[in-house]
Design goal:
With 318 residues, the chain is α+β, with helices and mostly antiparallel strands. It has eleven helices and eleven strands. The protein has two domains: 177 residues, Ribosomal Protein S5, domain 2 (2-Layer Sandwich), CATH 3.30.230.10; 129 residues, Alpha-Beta Plaits, CATH 3.30.70. The strands form two sheets. Strands 1, 2, 3, 4, 5, 6 and 11 form a seven-stranded mixed beta sheet that branches. Strands 8-9-7-10 form a four-stranded antiparallel beta sheet. Helix 7 packs antiparallel against helix 8. The protein binds L-homoserine.
């Protein structure tokens, strides 16, 4: 086999209170990527849509992880692990992007995770999921200047994931009840690097204590399938008060959606998308109507998704 096609899910990072440590994969939107084996050690990027993504693999979120993978394939660590390949390989990557860059829905992570899962499939799955996350982190570094794993981890694992630590990697998949997710993406772009730059570097102890309570409550709520606890814990006293200023209509959307029965929600990743969790689909649809209505009144173009938690992560489809 020298070619594979993968479907790469969008993701919601942070899950409100878990900045950089919690994330969740979505059934929609998703990207499609095709990766082909080359017989020389290089990476070629082909973009099949109108987004102005860098074609230099070192600057591309799919390319940088693959260059790291190639470097490791040619290095000693793998040779001693008996995984050195008998012939040189490279990768040609074609990306059909449906997750808009700068949407807060893990667009860069989908490219990074999709590329490494597809390449690993072509190599006979010689790398572990943790290895793939290590490579994919280089894509996030290119995209936002920082290695954060809260999009790539759920993108590769599926479901809800906790990243207790990046160095060394310590990942805990969190079993969550089936939930319905409504997302609105107002058509403005928020660059993750900018949305990180504006954050305060220090937090008050009282805010940290409240945030710890919420993170623990959210994880416990997922595991106990306690919907009220999930709802109570979807509170962020550190990041949201600052970032929400970049998102028109944020407070109104959050309040009205909760009044309509949503468990809660907040900024998806670094925004501008907003997500809400609901117990049933009819509430999730009501929430969608509210989001549309508010942005229509503001006069801001927007896209919505009513979806569910993706359980599989990046999936080989051909
Ligand atoms: N945890 C990251 C942030 C996710 O909020 O900056 C970016 O998608």
């Amino acid at each position: 086999m020298n070619k594979v096609t993968v479907q790469c899910p969008g993701t919601v990072a942070n899950l409100v209170c878990g900045f950089d440590i919690l994330g969740m994969a979505l059934d929609a939107p998703f990207d499609i990527m095709e990766v082909r084996l080359l017989d020389e050690p290089r990476v070629v990027i082909i973009s099949k849509d109108g987004f102005p993504l860098p074609s230099d693999p070192a600057q591309n979120t799919a390319g940088a992880p693959l260059l790291e993978m190639l470097a490791e394939l040619n290095g000693d660590a793998l040779a001693t692990a008996g995984r050195r390949l008998s012939r040189p390989v490279g990768f040609e990557v074609s990306i059909t992007k449906k997750i808009k860059p700068g949407s807060g829905l893990g667009s860069s992570a989908a490219s990074a995770a999709g590329a490494v899962v597809a390449a690993n499939h072509l190599l006979g799955n010689i790398f572990s999921k943790e290895d793939l996350i290590r490579f994919a982190l280089f894509g996030e570094k290119v995209a936002s200047g920082v290695k954060h794993a809260d999009n790539i981890t759920p993108c590769i694992y599926g479901g809800v994931t906790l990243i207790r630590s990046i160095f060394p990697l310590d990942i805990i998949p969190i079993p969550a009840p089936p939930l319905h997710v409504t997302v609105v993406h107002p058509q403005i772009e928020v660059r993750t690097s900018d949305a990180r730059q504006i954050l305060r570097k220090q937090v008050l102890l009282k805010d940290a204590i409240r945030q710890w309570g919420n993170v623990a409550g959210l994880v416990a709520g997922f595991m106990l399938q306690d919907f009220d606890l999930i709802g109570r814990s979807l509170e962020d006293v550190i990041i949201e008060p600052i970032r929400s200023m970049l998102i028109p209509g944020f407070d109104a959307i959050k309040q009205c959606c909760k009044e309509a029965g949503a468990l809660g929600g907040g900024i998806s990743g670094s925004g501008p998308s907003i997500f809400m969790l609901s117990k049933d689909e009819s509430t999730a649809r009501k929430v969608e109507d509210i989001m549309k209505d508010i942005y229509t009144r503001i006069g801001l173009d927007h896209h919505t998704y009513v979806t569910t938690i993706n359980q599989q992560g990046v999936k080989v489809i051909a």
